[in-house]
Amino acid sequence: MAITTLSSRELNQDVTRAKRAASRGPVIITVRGKPAHVLLSFEEYQRLTHQHRSIADALAMPDVTDIDFQPPRIAVSLRTADLA
Length: 84
Fold this sequence. Notes:
Blueprint: E1 4-7, H1 8-13, H2 15-24, E2 27-31, E3 34-39, H3 42-49, H4 55-60
Parallel strand pairs: 1-2
Antiparallel strand pairs: 2-3
């Protein structure tokens, strides 16, 4: 995992570079030479926060083709209605 450090000025001048770097590892963004923010890929953010997207969120994302969704089976039994 590569850690990249960019100043806020460098980030503003080349956002594409920052996004590419974030796909390889965290990008530390500095303000006046001090670390202020961290840019992460969405997958890394989810891994760190243990967040899992809902099936609705996953289906709403563009270019999603490989969703592992195995809903649990529910046993349903029928019974006669008591109309008394």
